[in-house]
Amino acid sequence: MKFSALKANDAHQLSEMIKEGDWMVLFYSEGCYHCDMMKPEWNKVYQKFPKNMNIAQVERDCIPELKFNPEIMGYPTIKMYNNNNEIAEFDEDRTYNKMMDFAKKHRNTIDRAISKKISRKVSKKMNEKLQENNKKSKKAKKSKKAKKSKKAKKSSKEKKSKKKMKKMINSSVEQHLKKMVHSSKKKRNHNTNHNINNNNNDHNIN
Q1: Could you please report the per-residue DSSP string of 3-54?
Q2: Block means of pLDDT (10 residues each) for the chain, length 206 residues?
């Protein structure tokens, strides 16, 4: 924004506007030799000043009407303001390049805008990363749970299989033992009968 304060109402308006953003302000006096000498260079600065910064020029008679009460020791005086606070006073050669460098050196608005933009981007990326990590975490938990469930099922199946096998072995052993006992009894009975027959034969001979 470009602004010229030539009367009291202008000064009151500038007093409100200067509360926000970066402002480079020239305080000058009509008829001042040094002001007239720097006028061509200042006019170039005024015309080509960055659009995202503010520039104002205040005539000497309006200064008492300014609410921010600038301290002026002589004319011309150039000061830099940020949100109504004076942050620097120009004290170099009054050339276009020097004055532009002074304004850019002490600007804060652009830096804050860039900072906010970067901050938003970083915040967005962090949120995306967080969401991605949460998804991965949920997926991993789900996979882990599925594996655990599968393992538990497998383990249960193996236990059942082992139990069944053990039962079969026990049953087989039991059957085998029964056969052996039965065979042994049969053998004993056979031997007993044989002995009885032999004894009977002996008695018959006698």
Answers
A1: EEE-SHHHHHHHHHHTTSSEEEEEEE-TT-HHHHHHHHHHHHHHHH--TTSE
A2: 95 96 96 96 96 95 95 96 95 96 83 53 73 80 73 72 75 71 64 56 50
Q: Name the one residue in this structure whose structure tokens are 């120009």.
A: 90
- Which long-range contacts link 104-108 to residues 24+ away (Cβ below 8 Å)? 104/50, 106/22, 106/80, 106/82, 107/22, 107/53, 108/22, 108/82
The answer to whether the peptide bond before residue 76 is cis (omega within 30 degrees of 0) is yes
Residue 1 near residue 16 (C-beta atoms within 8 A): no
Whole-prediction pTM: 0.54
What the block records as the tokens of 160 is 């059942």
Contacts of 204 (CB under 8 A, 6+ apart): none
Tell me which residue has tokens 């304060």. 5
Tokens read off for 193: 């009968």
d(CA 157, CA 166): 14
CA proximity to 18, closest of 72, 54, 71, 60: 54
